[in-house]
Recover the amino acids of this structure.
């Protein structure tokens, strides 16, 4: 028994060490970027980053625009909107893929969601599907007016929760000529049913809590939050799902950012629990690429949405061999495989 415990401890240590060695943990990047090989300064002739702000429905949105090497505003470039995961911010995985796409010749944008990150909105960390979908439309509004962008060559990439919201946005927004997701997470279904349907028995109880939280807000009382706890490494190691266990290390250790948080307003559940990203998938007639790790415990969400995309001109499901959900965010070999697919996909369709 003692030997077994030692082996388990060694495995946990090995996993943690591997994650740390593959990450950029420094927070002194001048642009706040926390991903590996992030831009540290803008240099002539190279990919550059441009922090920008713009208004969306009265809120000030904070975003980063990445321009390709030797960018010339007088020329014409394809562009890609990148939507970040739930709880994530533009400086993490969304920024990584935005930078890598810029290295391939695209003008890209990654913005913090309304009420989240460095974007405006009160109370903080409201997480409603309508807002997240509107954020994606808003990024399209901004980037298609950016100098050098060819609005007829606009693509969309959504990661995790941003992937689910990207599917919903692309169903009606035909400015997006090609749509891709990475490790898609169907936020509403999980908030309602629990991960892998683990919360079916508590749906009505949680809806009652959300309703009471909204009533408290309306009365001018305290704003209540869900997932508003501090997780220790020991707690994370005991979690039954890779997504949450590895997510803790990614968001709280190897790629931590002060604006990133798992918490969201309890009242948001009134909207979240009625949302399903795979509803109306038949409206997507654009080319569609959906990517997921072959070992991702979230794959069932990608599979369900992909099978419902009956109207796509062409569609492809790509499983990244050996990768879990979170590992597609930062492990170099998995990022490279995803990028190779994205370059081929956007290169053909934009």
């Amino acid at each position: 028994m003692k030997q077994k415990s030692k082996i388990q401890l060694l495995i946990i240590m090995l996993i943690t060490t591997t994650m740390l060695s593959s990450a950029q943990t420094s927070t002194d990047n001048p642009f706040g970027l926390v991903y590996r090989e992030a831009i540290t300064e803008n240099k002539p002739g190279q990919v550059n980053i441009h922090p920008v702000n713009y208004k969306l429905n009265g809120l000030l949105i904070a975003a980063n625009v990445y321009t390709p090497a030797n960018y010339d505003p007088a020329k014409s470039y394809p562009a890609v909107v990148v939507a970040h995961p739930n709880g994530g911010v533009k400086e993490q995985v969304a920024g990584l893929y935005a930078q890598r796409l810029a290295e391939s010749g695209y003008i890209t944008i990654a913005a913090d969601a309304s009420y989240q990150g460095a974007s405006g909105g009160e109370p903080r960390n409201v997480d409603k599907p309508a807002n997240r979908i509107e954020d994606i439309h808003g990024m399209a509004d901004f980037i298609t007016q950016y100098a050098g962008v060819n609005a007829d060559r606009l693509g969309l990439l959504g990661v995790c929760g941003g992937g689910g919201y990207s599917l919903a946005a692309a169903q009606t927004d035909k400015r997006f000529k090609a749509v891709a997701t990475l490790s898609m997470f169907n936020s509403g279904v999980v908030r309602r049913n629990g991960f892998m349907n683990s919360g079916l028995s508590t749906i009505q109880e949680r809806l009652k809590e959300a309703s009471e939280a909204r009533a408290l807000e309306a009365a001018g009382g305290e704003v209540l939050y869900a997932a508003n706890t501090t997780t220790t490494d020991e707690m994370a190691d005991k979690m039954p799902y890779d997504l949450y266990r590895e997510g803790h290390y990614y968001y709280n250790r190897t790629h931590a950012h002060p604006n990133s948080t798992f918490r969201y307003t309890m009242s948001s559940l009134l909207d979240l629990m009625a949302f399903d990203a795979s509803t109306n998938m038949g409206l997507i007639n654009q080319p569609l690429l959906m990517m997921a790790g072959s070992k991702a415990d979230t794959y069932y969400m990608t599979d369900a949405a992909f099978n419902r995309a009956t109207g796509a001109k062409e569609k492809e499901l790509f499983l990244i061999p050996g990768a879990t959900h979170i590992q597609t965010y930062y492990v170099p070999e998995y990022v490279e495989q995803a990028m190779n697919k994205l370059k081929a996909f956007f290169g053909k369709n934009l």
Observations:
- The domain at 2-186+229-262+276-349 is CATH 3.40.50.1820 (Rossmann fold).
- The longest helix spans residues 2-21.
- The chain has one domain: 2-186+229-262+276-349.
